[in-house]
Amino acid sequence: MKKNIPTIRDVAAAAGVSTATISKFINGTQRFSPAVEARIAEVIGQMGYRSNPLAQSMITGKTKTVGLSVLDVTNPHFTSIVKGANRVAQAHGYTVLLVDTEENPGREQALLEALSRRVDGLIIFSRMPDSELEWLAGLDKPLVFFGRLPRMTLPTVASDDHRGAYMMTRHLVTLGHKRFAYMGFSKSRRDEERMGGVKECLAAHGLELTVYDAAAPSAQEGERLCSEMMLGAGHPDALVCYNDLMALGFMKAAQSLGFRIPADISVAGVDNIVYGNYTSPPLTTVDLHSERMGVAAMEKLLDTIAGRPTEPFTLIEPQLILRGSTANRN
Amino acid sequence: MKKNIPTIRDVAAAAGVSTATISKFINGTQRFSPAVEARIAEVIGQMGYRSNPLAQSMITGKTKTVGLSVLDVTNPHFTSIVKGANRVAQAHGYTVLLVDTEENPGREQALLEALSRRVDGLIIFSRMPDSELEWLAGLDKPLVFFGRLPRMTLPTVASDDHRGAYMMTRHLVTLGHKRFAYMGFSKSRRDEERMGGVKECLAAHGLELTVYDAAAPSAQEGERLCSEMMLGAGHPDALVCYNDLMALGFMKAAQSLGFRIPADISVAGVDNIVYGNYTSPPLTTVDLHSERMGVAAMEKLLDTIAGRPTEPFTLIEPQLILRGSTANRN
DNA sequence: CTGAAAGCGCTAACAG
DNA sequence: CTGTTAGCGCTTTCAG
Questions:
Q1: What pTM was estimated for this model as a whole?
Q2: Does the CB of B113 have a partner CB in chain A at under 8 Å?
Q3: Three-class SS of residue A155?
Q4: Touching check for B111 and chain A: CB below 8 Å?
Q5: What is the dihedral of CA A98, A100, A105, A107, to 10 degrees?
Q6: Cβ of residue B204 near strand D, that is under 7 Å?
Q7: Is Transcription regulation among the key words of this record (chains A, B) (predicted)?
Q8: CB of B312 nearer than 7 A to strand C
Q9: Is A100 on the interface with B (CB under 8 A)?
Q10: Do A90 and B96 make contact, defined as CB atoms within 8 angstroms?
């Protein structure tokens, strides 16, 4: 099974030319006499030679590869981003190397460090504290970050979470809801923005907000927090969740506790993951345009790599998606 | 922004030792006098030196990195596999580089080719025709393949799809269903096995099967095929889908056409994706133990890389998950 | 204990 | 058109 992988030297020898010639031929850097080209092509063909990208990268400093690091490949929001990024990268001849960091946040730095040296640029979705963000710049690679940064030192792509949450809340207020709850995930950088949007809107209408905090942005946590929220004295009549996953979990648990959605409580999520379509009732949500975020981030990265000028900050506008999980109380 | 990344030579010079010493120190290959070690550590620290993994890999031939190629990161079945594989890899100090091939099957070979030279081994989920499988072996890398192979030339991990489908069908027959339909996805290697399981069971009970074929293993296709299946003369009373995604789509479409599930038709999927829990009714399915498959594949790969002996073939047993989308007709 | 030197596989001037 | 000659940044004998 140990086929000796041929090197450029083997090929050169077999074809009776120099390694430089092979190199130039492979990369199309230069043309040669038909006789030589034919010979080279033939030898390469029968030896099954492929240039070693590592050696190639080491000298050119280019890998035609970009890294994309996400928090959880299991979350549809992130996989949509991946889809978008992938499409753009492929169109430009780049390969995307995906890394899932959530399994072990402690290893994130090591992971990114390792990845950064193997790619031409990085797109990062991270929960890293701002202090460590400095460190990212030290990687000395073109880099695009997801989310709003306090001091915008890195090129970023972000959704307008505050606005999305505000819009959703505004809608629910208009529908006549009075007792609001927000199921958040405070470990996320964006939780604050979303909760802020909800609060700001409620404040403007003189309404209160009860906040619940999940340990993970998952359906399971949504289920877990449900009984706490619904079985106290006077449950809320409108719930905005940090994301759709949590909303899905909540709805299931609420329904199995005997509550009707949206009759007893309106539920809304954020992300517009595709599975929100398949629940009963289907989930009202805020579309953050995940895929478009992936596209924008990859375009920005590729521009940076190519030395093209780019906007340092792209904000993607949210959009309300109204479905059956919210009702009119007027 | 252009920090000159320090090389081993810079460090050696600054520390007043040779590059060889630095190299050995970094890799812990050898110990040195406390004085020297302290000096080196200090210099490395303040220069922020990190060895270049490319150069390192080029010479050692090891990357401490493995590639995992999946058909669609958007499909929960695959992301579960990723989770499992990731966990094992990290536990062994390996980094997983994930690649999504479905966007462009035509580019799959190029993608794998590129990836293979950058990693110590590969785990591949592919729709590649058997003829091209040969080519994979030619990559000359430790490699684990998902699915049953005709001529088992590669180490593989597979679910027992035939058995799972048989079990599910058996259960539906026992429940008293008479008119069976199978919604397949013939482009997949596993479709045949699943359909075979269904057919074999039905044949044993003298029952017929109507087959529908989807263009993609997606919820959207499930929705699309629904009207065709349900609005003809005499619709089926039991449907087994190639996967849960298709089942989800079908259920939604059927319900919006006014059918009740499972009263009018029992629906079952395969994969046991988490979202099957959040539909109404929740989806009956066959758990293929995706995550366990990822674990098994990664263990097998790591064993191969380390030169440890391994079973060439691992079969993961399926398990029936009974939920509300199937009913008793007796 | 420490260093000199020979490359890994490939590209990039620079000659011819 | 084609070849020579330096390395890229690092590891690894092999001496000292």
A1: 0.94
A2: yes
A3: coil
A4: yes
A5: -60
A6: no
A7: yes
A8: no
A9: yes
A10: no
- If residue A11 lies in a helix (H) or strand (E), which one and from where to where? helix A8-15
pLDDT digits (tens, 9 = 90+) for B76-122: 999 999 999 999 999 999 999 999 998 788 889 989 988 999 999 99
Separation between the CA of A319 and the C1’ of C12 (whole angstroms): 52
Q: Which domain holds residue A138?
A: 65-159+290-318
Domain at B43, CATH number: 1.10.260.40
- Which of A170-179, B66-75, B149-158, B213-222 bottoms out in mean pLDDT, i.e. has the lowest? B149-158
Q: How many contacts does A have with B, using Cβ atoms within 8 A?
A: 139
CA distances from A66 to A57, A88, A123, A189, B90 (A): 13, 11, 8, 24, 21
Rounded to the nearest angstrom, the minimum Cα separation between A179 and chain B is: 25
Pair of tokens at residue B295: 């674990």
- CB interface of A with B, residues 29-58, below 8 Å: 48, 50, 52-55, 57-58
Give strand D nucleotides closer than 7 A to any protein Cβ: 1-5, 7-13
The helix/strand/coil state of A199 is: helix
Give the CA B110 to C1' C11 distance in Å.
Answer: 22
Residues B171 and B242 in one domain: yes
**Beta carbons within 8 Å of A138's beta carbon, 6+ residues apart:** B3, B48
pLDDT tens sequence across B274-321: 999 999 999 999 999 999 999 999 999 999 999 999 999 999 999 999
Q: What is the DSSP string of B67-131?
A: EEEES-TTSHHHHHHHHHHHHHHHHTT-EEEEEE-TT-GGGHHHHHHHHHTTSSEEEE-----HH
Q: What is the pLDDT of residue B139?
A: 85
Structural domain includes residue A118: yes
Considering only CB atoms, B111 lies closest to which of A53, A95, A115, namely A95
Q: What is the DSSP letter of B187?
A: T
Judging contacts by C-beta atoms under 8 Å, the chain A residues touching residue B274 are 219
CATH for B114 = 3.40.50.2300
Give pLDDT < 50 ranges for chain A: 1-2
